Amino acid sequence: MLDRVEAEQDGRPGRGLSWPWFLVVVIVYAGIIQGLGLLIGVDTGDSDSAFPDAEALVRNALIPIGASIVFAAGVVTWLGWWGEVLSYRAPVRRWVRWVPISMIAVAVLGLNYGHLADQSVSLVLCVLLLGLFVGVGEELMFRGIGVHVFRRAGLTEGKVALCSSLVFGLVHVSNAFGTGAQAVVQALVVTTSGYFFYLCLRVGGAIWLPMLVHGLWDISLFSSQVGDQPKTYLGMALVIALQVTLIVVLLVRRRTIEPVRAGAPG
């Protein structure tokens, strides 16, 4: 399964983890979230919201996601990869900095402050904590472990980005247990978001930046979905517009992401 000798021969410390076994790790990770949700979750079938109150949010999301963070951290510890996971040395051109900058700005502007103001303090605090948990847990698993699995396999940065983002999107299909076919659309959107978070990792040179951006992004999304009466908010148009804009810009400028090598033309 894991080969410490192979990792040492590759010049990297810790154990090795092949991509098929990484997929097994991801399945266990998703199983923890879905399984605990089914085991201790609150039935919210009578509500239009998945998180009508703080108790539902804690039992349906915070506890399962918290357990998945512990699992992901345990995997990184066992692999001995903390040094690699916490930092990432793959610089990009300056213009790519606008990816995290724009995502943070839109997340803050798009947050439904009015709707949150109508909720209990405990529910609002749980929403903030949920954003933190999702940012830490998913980034640790996919931009932490996942990116390094594919990088250690010898893939180019472009293929590392593609593979890790595809796995990130596919794992969200597990949400079909709760949302049905809508989860497939969500998985496609999440795949593109995974690529944005990958670029945040490269811009920041550390996993803390994608964790921050991811957390703020999800808080903005959750801000309209909590409480007994979730409300559509105009600020969500900003989130959607930026998602589309970033996809178009990155498709057009995908060949100008990597730094120009010394001595190369242009």
Q: Notable features of this structure?
A:
mainly alpha, 266 residues, 69% helix, disordered C terminus, disordered N terminus
How many alpha or pi helices? 12
Percent of residues in helices: 55-70%
Q: What is the distance, rounded to the nearest whole angstrom, between the alpha carbons of the first and last residues? A: 44 Å
Total number of beta strands: 0
SSE pattern, N- to C-terminal: HHHHHHHHHHHH
How would you describe this protein?
By secondary structure, the chain is mostly helical. Helix content is 69%, strand content 0%. Helix 5 (98-110) packs antiparallel against helix 12.
Fold topology:
Elements: H1 4-9, H2 19-40, H3 54-79, H4 82-86, H5 98-110, H6 113-117, H7 121-152, H8 157-171, H9 176-179, H10 182-204, H11 208-222, H12 235-252
Task: Please outline what is shown here.
The chain contains twelve helices and no strands. The protein is mainly alpha-helical and 266 residues long.
